[in-house]
Amino acid sequence: MSLLRPLLLALALVAVPGAQGACPVPADLKREDGTRTCAKLYDKSDPYYDNCCRGAELSVEPGADLPFLPSGWANTASSLVVAPRCELTVWSRAGKAGKTHKFSSGSYPRLEELRRGIFGDWSNAISALYCRCY
């Protein structure tokens, strides 16, 4: 029984929600010229973490203040990554209205796992954002 306990613990740690999966490491969020990117939003998510952070991506620069997301991105993001020493604030309605949530540095491969009120989640629910780095 004592050998089974560490094995179960290791299995539980691998299956923890919020695992990085195919998402980039937050420290790797940089443009080709080496300048910092505040966050990246992706339009694909999957029950398997290795298939998350795929599809079209929207790079968000430090200081970006978007009360209205670019064409085709409103209510589209289903996974995201926030760079170190950055914070992404999102709203559920355009014009910075509705529910709000702050994402600190890290990978969020499945926004379905983050509650937005009683009945909703943050997958396909981001309509406005502000990203700041310090």
Task: Describe this protein's structure.
The chain starts with a helix and ends with a strand. It is globular. It has 134 residues and is mainly beta. The chain has one helix at 4-14; strands spanning 39-44, 54-60, 65-66, 79-93, 97-108, 115-116, 120-121, 128-133. It is built from one helix and eight strands, in the order αββββββββ. The protein has a single domain (19-133), classed as Gamma-B Crystallin, domain 1 (Sandwich).
Task: Itemize the secondary structure elements and their pairings.
Blueprint (H helix, E strand, L loop, with lengths): L3 H11 L24 E6 L9 E7 L4 E2 L12 E15 L3 E12 L6 E2 L3 E2 L6 E6 L1
Antiparallel strand pairs: 1-2, 1-4, 3-8, 4-5, 4-8, 6-7
CATH class: Mainly Beta
Distance between the termini: 49 Å
What's the name of the CATH homologous superfamily? Crystallins
How would a textbook summarize the main sheet? 6 strands, antiparallel
Tertiary shape: globular
Low-confidence stretches: 3-19
In percent terms, what proportion of residues is strand?
A: 35-45%
CATH topology name = Gamma-B Crystallin, domain 1
Helix content: under 10%
CATH architecture: Sandwich
SS summary, helix count: 1
Strand and helix order: HEEEEEEEE
The number of E-state strands comes to: 8
Radius of gyration: 16 Å
Number of discrete domains: 1
Structural class: mainly beta
The overall pLDDT average reads 84
